[in-house]
Design a protein that fits this description.
flat; 585 residues; eight-stranded mixed beta sheet; GIY-YIG endonuclease
Length: 585
């Protein structure tokens, strides 16, 4: 297919971009030798996700660079710009909690999360703690042992914490600065790695409570001491220099690469991060790409230990830290342990990953083939909800390559205040895709509406006005509110086996958009839905409205009420008007 074009590719370093039939970049890579790397994709011996990516390639381009470092930088910038479908995505892209010490205006501890660690005035961060529960428990324990400020506001008088000697009474007392300094030194010493100081403090408190016959409090502290001892015993690997360093390793097999990162803080192993992602390019390249992407969003330690396969010279110039490939000793043992952990993780999780892939990406591919589409990477799904024609809202959820993209979900409060599915759908579709055109937002390959003929036609009318060519389908439900059938733009029913992955995939999408929209609808209604509906009836003011709500509690109960019941609260004419209004809805 690309035989002649490949002959023209030079044997030089650079970055290459794979494009699909629509000219969209679906993968960006780098290579020391562009010709060898690009040729390797089209020899017919690729497997797994790489084969899937190659099957979608309609064209490729490349940028020649002067060095491998320059190739890497070009690749990073292109990935940021285009966010290609097949480039590594951090599937466990979460922020880890830190213990944050705030010194001014009053000493305080709390658990914080930062996607990127920021140096702030009067704040010191310790972590990350992969175990969020452990971080919270340590903070709670330190708050009990030391008299720190615990409230968020500044009360006028001291509270219970002051009287039980767990606060110095910062709100109204002239606090002892020497005592505050000692407390601060103790806490920072413990968080910096000195375990002995906290253990001694807990034991001191335990004996104090015991001597005062407060055995319940003494027992609680004994349990806390046991927990802290267990946590600290798990951190058996220790470095005397108390430096912050990470250990990065990987293991690849059967089309996947397993990543393992150990966090060593203040010289102790405090936990780690693991992830498994599809292997698309060379193992070394994917491992380096993951590393760079991870440290764009997480704390960069003083040094990172890496296996020999990774090019430390290039990474040193991209990630602002020191990379070391240890050859012996404790550091080498840590790298080997991380490699072993990455291998065990992959072997344990591979079966579950393949099952998940069958339900998501494979189901998405089946749907693409069923609808005879060239590309199906993104699906936008819409649902509408209203209560008697009021509080009309719409929700949009997005699925990318078979998985929900929750950061792209959108809520719409509709201006039409009546039960009109056609115009409701027109409004939300217009608002969504007019905005997408103006702001140059990504467009879907497929739009699915929750409904049949009316909703499909409304969507098509708007897309036609906006001159957008996007495939539209409708998902209908049966009388039991279960997914029933898929309908195309021409009102043809597409037969799908109810036991198939694609049918379960469609059901999952329909359930997700319904859940999202209903939750938004409940939020709107909770802000005074009954009150707002009663505003539509002449003769019902605030006083009568309160009486109705107090008596009946819901619109449904009012609708079921007899005229005589309503007349106990309202004049006859107003009661008639309310009953008529509710029946019309």
């Amino acid at each position: 297919m690309f035989k002649e074009k490949l002959k023209l590719v030079p044997h030089l370093p650079g970055s290459y971009q794979m494009k699909n039939i629509d000219g969209i970049i679906i993968y960006v890579g780098k290579a020391k030798d562009l010709n060898k790397r690009l040729s390797s994709y089209f020899r017919g011996n690729v497997t797994g996700k790489t084969a899937k990516m190659v099957s979608e390639v309609h064209n490729f381009e490349y940028i020649v660079a002067s060095s491998e470092l320059e190739s890497f930088l070009i690749e990073i910038n292109l990935i940021k710009q285009y966010n290609p479908k097949y480039n590594i995505d951090l599937t466990d892209d979460k922020s880890y909690p830190y213990i944050e010490y705030i010194s001014k205006p009053f000493p305080k501890l709390k658990v914080s999360r930062y996607l990127q660690v920021r140096k702030k005035d009067n704040k010191k961060l310790f972590g990350p703690y992969p175990n969020a529960y452990a971080a919270r428990r340590i903070v709670n324990l330190l708050n009990r042992i030391y008299p720190l400020k615990k409230c968020n506001s500044m009360p006028k008088k001291v509270c219970l914490y002051y009287h039980i000697e767990e606060c110095l009474g910062y709100c109204e007392k002239n606090t002892d600065q020497m005592k505050i300094k000692q407390v601060e030194n103790d806490i920072l010493s413990f968080l910096g790695g000195n375990d002995k100081i906290l253990k001694e403090k807990i034991e001191e408190k335990m004996f104090h409570y015991s001597d005062n016959m407060n055995f319940e409090m003494a027992l609680e502290l004994k349990k806390e001491l046991e927990y802290i001892s267990i946590i600290l015993d798990k951190q058996k690997i220790e470095f005397s220099d108390r430096s912050n360093r990470d250990v990065y390793a990987f293991y690849a097999d059967k089309g996947y690469i397993s990543i393992q990162i150990f966090f060593i803080r203040n010289g102790k192993l405090v936990g780690g991060h693991s992830d498994i992602v599809p292997l698309i390019s060379e193992i070394k390249d994917d491992a380096e790409n993951y590393l760079v992407k991870f440290y764009e969003k997480h704390e960069i330690p003083k040094e990172i230990l890496i296996p020999s396969e990774i090019d430390s010279k290039v990474l040193n110039q991209i990630v602002n830290t020191t990379f070391i490939t240890p050859l012996k000793g404790k550091k080498k043992q840590l790298v080997e342990m991380a490699i072993l952990n990455s291998q065990v993780n992959l072997e344990n999780e591979l079966e579950l990953i393949l099952k998940d892939e069958s339900k998501t990406e494979n189901a998405n591919e089946e749907l693409r083939e069923l609808l005879k589409m060239n590309v199906l990477d993104r699906i936008d799904i819409f649902d509408n909800s209203n209560l008697f024609g009021t509080f009309t809202v719409s929700g949009m959820v997005v699925f990318k390559n078979g998985r929900p993209a929750k950061n792209e979900y959108r809520k719409y409060k509709i201006s039409i205040d009546k039960n009109d599915d056609y115009n409701t759908m027109k409004e939300v579709i217009y608002r969504r895709y007019y905005r997408a055109l103006v702001d140059k937002l990504p467009l879907p390959d497929l739009i699915i509406v929750d409904g049949g003929k009316n909703q499909i036609n409304a969507t098509l009318d708007v897309l036609d006005d906006l001159r957008l060519d996007i495939k539209v389908c409708g998902l209908k439900k049966n009388d039991k509110h279960k997914t029933s059938e898929l309908v195309d733009e021409n009102q043809n029913i597409i037969n799908i086996q109810r036991t198939s992955n694609v049918f379960h995939y469609l059901t999952r999408m329909q359930d997700e958009v319904h859940r999202f929209t209903i939750n938004y609808h409940r939020q709107i209604r909770s802000k005074g839905s009954i009150s707002s509906i009663l505003d539509n009836v002449a003769g019902i003011g605030e006083k009568r409205k309160k009486q109705l709500i107090k008596t009946f509690g819901s619109i449904t109960k009012m609708k079921e009420a007899t005229l005589e019941d309503l007349e106990k609260i309202l004049p006859s004419a107003t009661a008639n008007a309310l009953q008529k209004f509710l029946k019309e809805q």
